[in-house]
Write a structure and sequence with these properties.
This protein is of the alpha+beta class. It is built from three helices and eight strands; from the N terminus they run ββββααβαβββ.
């Protein structure tokens, strides 16, 4: 059974960075906490694991804006929150996350009308209020 849903990568940028993000060009990232909102309607666990592997340097292919950021040495995925859903609710969740931080213009939203799917935030402790659950490992969602 394929588990579908939306996910929030809780990312720590440990140093101020300037990163070339594909067609978006060079973007400056200030040291701090960020949340990236994505959807995975073809397999939530495999998508999250792919992002984790990119962050750890195991997987190097670039497909999405977030890949450029995750492959930076001073960037770490600290936590992942998910919500299971068969519907594409990524933009809805991104809109709610935007209330808690500032968006990186154009990031992760080339296929929708949102301003951003990456947000600089003070913390990610509000994610459970958005009905997001902490993701522990792929095995937890396979049953």
């Amino acid at each position: 059974m394929v588990v579908k849903g939306v996910y929030c990568l809780c990312i720590e940028v440990c140093d101020d960075l300037s990163v070339e993000i594909g067609a978006l060009g060079v973007i400056d990232f200030n040291k701090g906490s960020y949340i990236y909102v994505g959807s995975a309607l073809n397999g939530l666990d495999s998508r999250v694991l792919r992002h984790m592997n990119t962050s750890e340097g195991v997987y190097n292919a670039i497909h999405w804006h977030i890949d450029y950021l995750l492959r930076e040495e001073s960037v770490r995925v600290e936590a992942v929150y998910v919500r299971l859903s068969d519907e594409k609710i990524e933009c809805e969740i991104a809109g709610k996350v935007s209330r808690y931080g500032s968006g990186v213009e154009g990031f992760g939203c080339s296929d929708c009308r949102c301003n951003s799917h990456l947000f600089r935030v003070k913390s990610w402790n509000f994610l459970p209020d958005l009905k997001m659950e902490k993701w522990e490992a792929a095995e937890t969602h396979l049953t």
